[in-house]
# Entry
Amino acid sequence: MNQDTDDWDRRTHRMSVLADYLSTSYLPSAWATREPRNANALVLHAWTRLVQGRSQGHLEDAAKVTESCFRAAELAPEDPAPWVVLLGVSRLELWKQQQVFAV
# Structure
């Protein structure tokens, strides 16, 4: 995935569509495992886990998804996608208001 810094909203939308489509695939997990320093791989993997969690009503490993988001944000600080996923995690996991405001 190309980092198009001029159009973050379009890129983030594409990521969300891919995550919905790939939510039952092993591909995002394999990509994140193969390239642990690739922010795109980490975000897509976290987003697919979030999509799975929404369908199940909870995340299997919220801490791991959160960690992937923070690592992706660290690797690509200009990218809003990790924060979008993290907000989704906070909503699904019913974080307290203070935790959400920190995001």
Q: What stands out?
A: The helical segments are 8-21, 27-34, 39-56, 62-75, 81-92, 97-102. The longest helix spans residues 39-56.
